[in-house]
Amino acid sequence: QVQFVESGGGLVEPGGSLRISCASSGSIFRILSIGWYRQAPGNQRELVAGISQYGIPNYADSVKGRFTISRDNAKNTMYLQMNSLKYEDTANYYCNSNPPHSSWGQGTQVTVSS
Questions:
Q1: How far apart are CA 95 and CA 49, in angstroms?
Q2: Tens digits of per-residue pLDDT, 2-41?
Q3: Which one, of 85, 111, 97, lies nearest residue 3 by Cα?
Q4: How many Å apart are CA 113 and CA 11, to the nearest integer?
Q5: DSSP letter for each residue of 31-89
Q6: What is the per-residue pLDDT across 59-78, written as a single tens digit (0 to 9) for each?
Q7: pLDDT at 47 over 80
């Protein structure tokens, strides 16, 4: 089973930027469609952005134009560049295959606050 470890979260002011990373174990990373998910307290986990094995991205409407997903198959790593952050982006961010098949990791907390 492929495992994912998230990092790079933190506290950022509204309008700010942050880049979070997802490191994966397993050589099959490069053939997986993968994605970033987030979960805020009291809400269900939702898919924020996905990227196919061919590098084709897709985004939730709520982040389109602000977030950019990318992957580096040589490093088994995925990234999420988040710009123009809003209060409602506050959540714990997770990575997994898309659709998710692996166990969920600890995630990385992103807090948007002034």
A1: 10
A2: 899 999 999 999 999 999 999 998 778 888 999 999 999 9
A3: 97
A4: 7
A5: GS-EEEEEE-TTS--EEEEEE-TT--EEE-TTTTTTEEEEEEGGGTEEEEEE-S--GGG
A6: 999 999 999 999 999 999 99
A7: yes
